[in-house]
Design brief:
The chain is α+β, with helices and mostly antiparallel strands. The chain has one domain. It contains two helices and five strands. Helix 1 crosses helix 2. The longest helix is centred in the middle third of the chain and has 13 residues.
Length: about 80
């Protein structure tokens, strides 16, 4: 089962961990990223899908694209 608004790809979790959450393990970073995605807002279309902005204080830039089936996927964290 997918928690949150989008499927979060392993690539997005690795990018988030590398840039913002170095001390967290994969599962903790994924859970934190899912919570941030639930509070993100749409910004504009992007070349790789849609650009969304996370909440303050980090205001992450998130690229959301087509996932499998009807669900969309968080592709990467910029």
């Amino acid at each position: 089962m997918i928690r949150g608004p989008w499927f979060v790809t392993p690539h997005a979790v690795r990018r988030y961990t590398r840039r913002y959450a170095r001390r967290l393990d994969y599962e903790a970073a994924r859970d934190q990223l899912v919570d941030l995605c639930a509070r993100a807002r749409y910004v504009r279309p992007s070349h790789g899908g849609e650009l969304w902005r996370g909440p303050r204080p980090l205001r992450l830039r998130l690229v959301v694209g087509r996932g499998e089936g009807e669900r969309r996927a968080l592709v990467t964290v910029l």
